[in-house]
Structure formats: structure tokens, C-alpha cells
Design brief:
The protein has about 750 residues and is mainly α. It is built from 38 helices and two strands. Strand 1 and strand 2 form a beta hairpin. It is extended, with a radius of gyration of 42 Å. About 25% of the residues are buried.
Length: about 750
């Protein structure tokens, strides 16, 4: 056998030669030149027949791509040659050879021997190849390459070029290539690389593609179905914060019963915040980056109606389009009346995915939608879901859907319908409809207790009804936020507490209407009531210790309280004769009362009230301030729910408690289907019921503890003889038969008994 030389061995063993060249490039220049000439000859042969299987040519491409950084001058034309072969013959190339060429180009790009613009443009074109593994390789490289290019700073030139190219690729005739380009853009947005408005609006155009393969990923992007929820978040295990409540009760020295009521109310407020925190995750920022949300919603809704009439898309895709339209309406507070008319036809119990449709209707409701537009939807849900001839699950879903709609647009529910629903189901035997009806009742106790009957308002709503002002259509009440913001400053809180105390002392008769109608003091006779009626009608002042002294001065002219009764009567008569008209003009800062000539000269107009801007207009609130604001609002809501008064002195805002505060700052524009299905319990199948029975039998003993160890239970005959009372067995057939025996039968039984006793003894 002839011994081979080292040069011949290295020429046939390219991996070892490659290793040696990387260590010492100058020593192996001749070997590289030999392999380069071999590559050029193989390239010329391959160009003649590009669809042939060229394994040796593929090995040479891999070898040169690994050592090209060592011989940059000789390999200057190598990247462009491979790119030309791919761009020209990528459809007919053998799959292994095509994959080898792509891997070689990726290696050259990682060594920064090729520009990103030219290579990525080629890779987007290669998406048209019918090779799934190759498309996955291209997708990973494109995403990672663009991410690395924008790692230190935004490469705007590269991003702009590739975005324009991808925008053209979305209109490509090849659906697979367009879909992969869209997936690249979605992945780059998810990695916060291309999170600008241009990327979002390019994806918006994909929602109107005639191909469902291209429309579905775009809809999934806005709906957020591809995002993973954080598994570490477990808001349910958080305990309510009761330290501030204990401090408040310690300062005010409340009773134990009131402390218990306040703790329960605080727990309820915390539970509501945690429920809002469990909203579905979706691309909230992407929806806000849409250039024309109203136009996008209208075009998408028009496409939805067209696909419904022609049955172009499958039902699941149309359902996602309906979901996206409803989210656009809810997030941007759009006005799209046709959507509510379209949804009414789907609100039937037998409709497929009707619980999801109820959730979509709820999240498309907001306070700017006219109540007349939502009234047909509310009536359709009440007529189709909430009546006697449907199952309790249907009633529960309908009431939950109504609750979610009314939570966003309370004026959509009429007073008569609300009272009818609550009366029918708040005390029903079915647990699901009962809880759903009571949740609807609890909602209107907070939102508008005036729509409820007096017996349904509850204690807290009845106590706070005189200070309650329901929001009208389009009205936003922010007074509560401004008042709570002032409590962050201790000096402002003390000043507000002093003002509240002074107002209570001045307005000593505040709330007298409730006291006169409901709370009658023991020992009060009818003459006092008649005296009050005379005072209110004729202007006479009762004397004595009734506490009504000086009433006309406060109500009419505010004069001196020491005037006599006669002077007061005469002044009142003169004012009634001379006063012709009282015009009250209320402005934001001052209240002016104009009276005609002849009014009392000593009656002074009320001083102008300057509107206090408060701390919110003077200071930029930090995250810690917002956490404190949420804490104060929770305590205020808990006190209101428990029926207790709340003053700025009741809370210590100096302590920064962050427990459970992050979860409460969430978005409530999305309605999850679980909120519609709340209270509905599905019946278990046979296997689940059998497993429940077996689990109940564990650690359980059967039979009587008395008797033998092997068999401790007794037969029914033994139990009848020893344990059962006579009145339990007096009507048995055997006992009744004994009393009806004839004399012959009794003698026969007696002889048998005597014979049996003789045998035993």
C-alpha cells in the first residue's frame, strides 16, 4: 500500500484543513488557493446544470464560508456569487444544497462580510420556496439579525428600508411568503424592536387581506392571543391590607361591630380590585398606535358584514373580527351604531359561542354611547336569556352580560326592566341566577341607587343618597379625585378636616328631612308636628324648646336673631308683597342673587366662592402618590360601603404601602368570557363523579363498632329484635300476623318452640 503525503491527506479532509487555516492562515495560502480553484471549476459545472445534486460543491461552499475571514481578498466575490445562485435558481435547487448556501450566507453575515440590507432582502424572497425547514431558518435569522442591529441604538436607515420591503411583501401573490413576512413584523414588535406606529399600521393593512391565512395572524396580533400570561402573578393569594383600617379605628375609637363591618367592606374593595387586575392581556399599545381607529373600525366592520353575508371566512375568524371591532370601540370610545344592530341577531341562547359574543357586546359599551343605541341590545338579552323557559345557566349568562354592559353604560338599562330583573331573581332558589341578580343590584347601588326601590338600596346607598349625584350622559365627575389628591398633603388634609367640622357645626340641621320622616323621637306629640307645618306654610315661629328659633333669619334674610316675633312677621309680610322675582345665576366661581327693588336692605349677597384647584393642579403626582391615592380611594369606598363617615383625619398617608397596589392599576376595557360564565357550574361526567365518590370513601369505616372484629355489622333481623323500638315495627306484616293467628296456629307454634328449647338444653 502506497503511503499518502500530508498535502494529499489535507486536500481530502476539509474540516481539518479548515481548522489549520484558522490557526495559521499564512502557512496554508497554497492549500487555500488549490481549494479555491477547485471551487471555481465546480461552480462553472454547476451553472450548466443547477438542479443536479452536487455534494462536493456544497462541501466547498461550507469550507470557504468558514475560512473567508482569513482570506478576505481572495473571497471578495464569494458572497455575491452564492447570492446570485440563490436568487436565480432557488426554486429548482436541491433542498440540502439550498440550505447549505443559506447557512453559508448566515455565517458570512455574522462575520460582517455582507451588508444586512442586501442579504435580508434576498431572504425575504426565499420565503417563496416550498421548504418549511428553510423558512423557519430564514425567519429566525431575520428576527435575530434585525434585533442585533438595533441593540445599541435604532438603525433607522435599515429599519426604513426593510419596512418598505416588507410592506411590498405583504402584497405578494405567494400567500406563504406574505404570511412569513407578517410573522417577522409581529415578532419584532413583540421583542420591542419595531414598536413604532408604522409597523402597527402595516399590520392593519394585513387585516383587510382577501386571504384568511394572512388576515388571521394580523387579528391575533391585535387580540393578543399569542402572548403568554405571567404565571408568577397570583393576586388571589394577597391578603387585604388592614393596617390602615386598624389605625383609623384606633384613632376614632369605633365599636367592634363597626370595625367588623369596615373590615368586610375593605375586603370587598380589595377583591374588586383583584378582579379588575385579572383582565385579559392584549396589545393595548398597538391599538393606540393605529393612525385612524374610527376608519379602521368602520372598514373592518364592513368586511365583517360582507364575510357574514357571503360566508367567505370560517366562523372562528369572523368571531375574531367581531372581537377586534368591539375592542377598538371600547378602547378609543368610538361611535359605531351599526355594530349594535348587527350583534342583536346573534344574541340567542342556541347561538354558537354566545358567551363570547356577550363579552364582545360588553367591551364595545362605553359611557359615550347613547343609551338609545344600547337599549335594543339590553332588551334582546333580557328577552332571550332571562325568562322562565330556559335553564339556569342561560339566565346566569344573560344577567352577567347585562351587568358588564351596565357597568360601562348604566343609562342603557331602564328603571322598570332593572326592577323586574331584580325582583324575579334576587331570591330565587337557583344559586347562579341569584348571585348574578345580586351582583347587578350591587352595581346599581354604587352607580345609581335612585333607579332601585327603597327596599333594594341597602344601608350605605340610603345613607349617602342625599349626597349622591348620578352622572348624566356624557358627564364625567372628577371631584372625588381632586378631593382625594388634597389628602396627600398633611396641611391640606388638616385644613379640609377643619372646614368639614365647621360646616357640620354651622349646618346643624343638615339631614332634618330624614329625621322628620323616618326617625320619630319618643315623647314627641302631634302638636309639635302641627307647629312645624304652620311654620313651613305660614311663616310663624313656634316658641319653646323645639330648637327652631331663628329659622326665618336663616331661610330668608339672615338678619339679627334677636328681633322680636312681631318684627319678623311684619318683615316677612312686606317681603312677600314686594318681592316679584328672584333670578339665580350660577357660574363656576360666584353665585349672584338678583332681587327687585323693595327687598330687605340688610340682606347681603353670599360671598363669592373661589374654586380650589387643589394639589393635583399644583404638583405632578409620582407613582408613589398614585399608590397612596388608590389606597385612600379604597378606604373611602370601604367606609361608604360600611355606612361610616370618612374624614381626612381617618387615614395616615405617610406610610407607603405598596401591597396589592400594582394590580389595581389595570385596564378595564377588555371583558373576559369567564366573567360572563361566572356562577355557572357544569355537571361532572361519570368519571368525575366516580372519582368524587372514591375520594369520599377514603379514611371511612363501615359497620358497627360492636361485635366481632371480622364481621362487626348486624343483620336487619338482629337489629329489629334488639335495637328497634316497638312502634317502628308494630305495623310490619310479621307482627300484625301474630295478632291475627287462630288458636290452632298458636298451639302449633308453641309446640315447635317447646321442642326447640328441649333440644337446646
Amino acid at each position: 500500500m502506497v503511503k499518502r503525503s500530508r498535502a494529499e491527506f489535507l486536500a481530502s479532509n476539509l474540516p481539518q484543513l479548515q481548522n489549520l487555516m484558522k490557526r495559521d492562515p499564512r502557512s496554508y495560502e497554497e492549500e487555500f488557493s488549490q481549494q479555491w480553484r477547485h471551487y471555481e471549476s465546480e461552480l462553472a459545472i454547476f451553472r450548466l446544470k443547477p438542479d443536479s445534486e452536487a455534494k462536493e460543491f456544497a462541501d466547498l461552499i461550507t469550507f470557504i464560508s468558514h475560512v473567508s475571514q482569513c482570506y478576505t481578498q481572495q473571497c471578495a466575490e464569494f458572497p455575491q456569487q452564492i447570492m446570485d445562485l440563490l436568487s436565480t435558481h432557488y426554486q429548482i435547487l436541491e433542498p440540502d444544497l439550498r440550505k447549505t448556501m443559506v447557512q453559508a450566507l448566515v455565517l458570512l453575515r455574522n462575520k460582517d462580510l455582507i451588508s444586512a440590507t442586501s442579504l435580508l432582502s434576498l431572504f425575504f424572497t426565499l420565503f417563496r420556496a416550498k421548504d418549511k425547514q428553510l423558512r423557519a431558518l430564514l425567519h429566525n435569522h431575520i428576527v435575530n439579525d434585525i434585533k442585533n442591529a438595533n441593540a445599541k441604538s435604532k438603525n433607522n436607515k435599515l429599519n426604513k428600508t426593510l419596512q418598505n420591503f416588507m410592506y411590498n411583501m405583504l402584497k405578494d401573490s405567494n400567500e406563504v411568503a406574505a404570511k412569513k413576512s407578517l410573522e417577522v413584523m409581529i415578532d419584532l414588535y413583540g421583542k420591542n424592536v419595531w414598536n413604532d406606529a408604522k409597523t402597527v399600521n402595516v399590520i392593519v393593512e394585513a387585516c383587510f387581506s382577501p386571504s384568511p391565512k394572512l388576515c388571521a395572524p394580523a387579528l391575533h396580533f391585535f387580540l393578543g392571543t399569542n402572548e403568554k400570561k405571567d404565571e408568577d402573578e397570583d393576586s388571589d393569594t394577597e391578603a387585604p391590607n388592614i393596617e390602615s383600617i386598624k389605625h383609623m379605628m384606633h384613632v376614632n375609637k369605633k365599636k367592634k361591630s363597626k370595625k367588623t363591618a369596615l373590615d368586610k367592606a375593605m375586603a370587598t374593595v380589595k377583591r374588586k380590585d383583584r378582579a379588575r387586575a385579572r383582565a385579559e392581556i392584549f396589545n393595548f399599545s398597538a391599538l393606540h398606535l393605529v393612525n385612524d381607529p374610527q376608519g379602521f373600525a368602520e372598514k373592518l366592520f364592513s368586511r365583517l358584514k360582507h364575510t357574514t353575508s357571503t360566508n367567505a371566512f370560517r366562523f372562528e375568524l369572523r368571531l375574531q373580527m367581531m372581537n377586534l371591532v368591539s375592542r377598538l370601540i371600547g378602547v378609543h370610545k368610538l361611535i359605531l351604531f351599526g355594530f349594535y344592530e348587527y350583534v342583536v341577531s346573534f344574541l340567542k341562547p342556541h347561538q354558537r359561542e354566545v358567551t363570547a359574543i356577550l363579552a364582545y357586546v360588553a367591551q364595545s359599551s362605553h359611557d359615550l354611547v347613547p343609551p338609545d343605541a344600547l337599549a335594543p341590545v339590553v332588551q334582546a338579552i333580557a328577552d332571550n336569556f332571562v325568562w322562565n323557559n330556559v335553564s339556569s345557566e342561560v339566565v346566569t349568562a344573560g344577567l352577567n352580560g347585562l351587568r358588564e354592559i351596565c357597568a360601562r353604560c348604566p343609562l342603557a338599562m331602564s328603571e322598570s326592566l332593572l326592577q323586574s330583573l331584580i325582583e324575579d331573581y334576587k331570591n330565587t332558589r337557583e344559586k347562579g341566577p341569584m348571585n348574578a341578580a345580586r351582583s347587578l343590584l350591587g352595581l346599581y347601588r354604587e352607580v345609581n341607587p335612585e333607579m332601585l326601590k327603597k327596599k333594594d338600596r341597602g344601608r350605605s346607598a340610603a345613607v349617602n343618597l342625599k349626597d349622591f349625584k348620578p352622572a348624566r350622559y356624557g358627564e364625567v365627575l372628577n371631584d372625588d379625585v381632586l378631593e382625594v389628591a388634597d389628602m396627600l398633603d398633611p396641611r391640606r388634609a388638616k385644613a379640609a378636616a377643619k372646614e368639614a367640622t365647621a360646616d357640620k357645626q354651622e349646618d346643624g340641621w343638615e339631614g332634618w328631612e330624614e329625621a322628620s320622616d323616618e326617625e320619630v323621637v319618643d315623647g314627641e306629640d302631634d302638636e309639635d308636628k302641627e307647629g312645624w307645618e304652620d311654620v313651613s306654610s305660614e311663616g310663624e315661629k313656634p316658641t319653646g324648646e323645639d330648637g327652631w328659633e331663628g329659622w326665618e333669619e336663616a331661610s330668608l334674610d339672615g338678619g339679627d336673631e334677636k328681633d322680636s316675633d312681631a318684627e319678623a312677621d311684619s318683615d316677612a309680610e312686606e317681603e312677600e308683597e314686594e318681592a316679584e322675582e328672584v333670578v339665580v345665576e350660577e357660574t363656576e366661581e360666584i353665585t349672584v342673587v338678583e332681587t327687585t327693588e323693595g327687598a330687605a336692605k340688610d340682606a347681603e349677597p353670599s360671598p363669592p366662592k373661589k374654586q380650589k384647584l387643589g394639589l393635583a393642579a399644583e404638583k405632578i403626582l409620582t407613582d408613589a402618590d398614585h399608590r397612596k391615592l388608590r389606597k385612600i380611594q379604597q378606604l373611602k369606598a370601604a367606609n361608604k360601603m360600611a355606612g361610616l363617615s370618612f374624614t381626612p383625619e381617618d387615614i395616615d398617608v405617610s406610610s407607603d404601602d405598596e401591597e396589592g397596589d400594582e394590580d389595581s392599576d389595570t385596564n378595564g376595557d377588555v371583558v373576559d368570557v369567564s366573567r360572563i360564565m361566572r356562577g355557572i357550574r357544569r355537571k361532572d361526567d361519570y368519571e368525575a363523579r366516580l372519582a368524587s365518590i372514591k375520594s369520599g370513601r377514603e379514611d371511612k369505616t363501615y359497620g358497627s363498632r360492636k361485635g366481632k372484629e371480622e364481621r362487626s355489622s348486624k343483620t336487619n333481623r338482629e337489629k329489629a329484635k334488639t335495637t328497634k323500638a316497638f312502634m317502628m315495627v308494630v305495623h310490619k306484616r310479621s307482627v300484625v300476623g301474630k295478632a291475627k293467628r287462630s288458636l290452632r296456629e298458636k298451639q302449633k307454634v308453641l309446640r315447635q318452640h317447646i321442642t326447640k328449647q328441649k333440644k337446646q338444653h
